[in-house]
Specification:
This protein is an alpha/beta fold and 433 residues long. It is 21% helix and 21% strand. It contains nine helices and 18 strands. β5, α1 and β6 form a beta-alpha-beta unit. α2 runs parallel beside α4, α6 runs parallel beside α7 and α7 runs parallel beside α8. The radius of gyration is 24 Å and the shape is elongated. The two termini are 31 Å apart.
């Protein structure tokens, strides 16, 4: 590479082949003189691999609309001042993808409750044109950056806490310390507390990955813009793979505890629709978070965690203020005879439906999608609720699987995943979605 004029250059993508993952590999320098003169049309820049460069380099021109930086040389990692200065020079930036390039933080003890406060009067870096932001790095580095930028509500934000590594993902590593991450996401969501028709989706994915998606409309107009926030982190329900610091903790305690602790970081009071997709066991604490959904109208549950939902609905029959607006309940991919002992899902639902009717309260509309349900079970549910039960599709029951078997169960959700693309620096569109 050498100094040259590039009046017509619109897209610049540089990559090392193979990517410099070897810590002893020599980094590839980008000279200060590269593109030093004129690049008036340059709008998209992607650097992927072991490059070393100056953060004030001319390639980061003020006209950039798309920027993707991924796995650059460790010696090139910026200070927070350098990174934010670069972003301030690009006021028209629309798409930003930062993968393993965020400024490093010192290690903090596990019992740390929050990161050091920013100075009084700290001015966040405004990114007013941003529509898509993808951040992947160690959890504290991600949230430390997130709290220093001002991103529009309409920006689709994806936070991948941790680095995409098969061994780490399979170990179930969750952010540590955990509390500062929860607090930072909650603070970020303060600008999203008045969304309309908001929804929350929680998924257990391949290996130990768990994933939240919170979204809603900016206003109540039919064509209103959407606000989307995604968070992915490590977590598993397999107690043989992940230490649960409670003696004799029931199966599913680790996954359930993470869900219970982290979900309130989102503004749950705005949520009207919830969707939970879990392949492995959950404990009863998983459902304790439902008290934070005062306006929930619709719920979809996939997998064996439906047993916990049925227990919850029966318990809430005695508490009229619990889920007072719930109208629609969809259960999918489960055998209603699960777990094969008393009481099973069907029996719990039957008791809950009878309880609702006996108290003169609204009886939920029940839909069963791709469930195993026999004629007698369906008849008992319809008799208990006084209304028909919709059964849709052929049975496709998800087995309760351990961590080692998750590939076959959760593979479809990852193969089809358009939100968290590990090669988020791809051009020309620099799509990180």
């Amino acid at each position: 590479m050498q100094m040259r004029e590039a009046d017509n250059l619109e897209t610049l993508q540089l990559t090392t082949i193979p990517h410099c993952e070897d810590p002893y590999a020599s980094p590839v320098p980008i000279p200060d003189t590269f593109l030093k003169q004129r690049v008036p049309r340059l709008r998209r820049v992607a650097l992927h691999g072991g490059f070393i460069f100056e953060w004030r380099s001319a390639i980061f021109t003020g006209g950039l609309t798309h920027l993707a930086l991924s796995e650059i040389a460790p010696s090139a990692l910026p200070s927070m001042k350098e990174l934010l200065s670069l972003l301030r020079r690009c006021p028209g930036l629309q798409t930003l993808s930062l993968v393993s390039v965020l400024p490093a933080l010192p290690e903090y003890p596990e019992d740390t409750m929050e990161l050091p406060k920013l100075k009084d009067g700290y001015k966040k870096t405004k990114l007013p044109c941003m529509t898509r932001c993808y951040l992947e790095d160690h959890a504290l580095e991600v949230v430390n950056f997130l709290r220093r930028v001002d991103i529009p509500q309409t920006c689709h934000v994806s936070l991948y806490l941790g680095r995409q590594d098969a061994e780490v993902d399979a170990s179930g590593d969750s952010p540590s310390p955990f509390a500062p991450v929860c607090r930072a996401v909650r603070d970020f969501c303060l600008t999203r507390t008045k969304l309309h028709d908001a929804s929350l989706r929680f998924e257990q994915r391949v290996g130990a990955r768990i994933h939240w998606t919170f979204e809603g409309k900016i206003d109540d107009a039919t064509d209103a813009s959407q606000s989307v926030l995604e968070v992915s982190m490590g977590g598993t329900s397999d107690p043989s793979s992940v230490h649960v610091p409670v003696e004799n903790a029931p199966p599913g305690s680790f996954l359930s505890a993470i869900f219970l602790m982290f979900s309130p970081a989102f503004p749950l009071a705005t949520v009207r629709s919830a969707h939970f997709s879990v392949h492995s066991t959950t404990s009863i604490m998983f459902w304790d978070v439902m008290m934070n959904f005062p306006h929930l109208e619709r719920i979809i549950v996939e997998g064996s965690c439906a047993h916990g939902l049925a227990e919850l609905l029966l318990r809430y029959v005695e508490f009229p203020r619990a889920l007072p607006h719930l109208r629609d309940v969809t259960i999918a991919h489960v055998d209603l005879s699960f777990p094969g002992s008393h009481p099973d899902i069907e029996q719990l639902l039957e008791l809950a439906l009878r309880g609702q009717r006996s108290h003169g309260r609204h009886v939920w509309d029940i839909k069963l999608e791709e469930c195993w349900v026999d004629v007698d079970q369906r008849h008992r549910l319809e008799e208990a609720g006084g209304k028909s039960i919709a059964c849709i599709g052929e049975p496709d029951v998800w087995e309760v699987e351990s961590l080692e078997d998750d590939d076959s169960a959760a593979g479809d959700s990852v193969d089809d995943d358009e939100h968290l693309d590990s090669d988020s620096s791809e051009l020309p569109d620099l799509e990180v979605a």
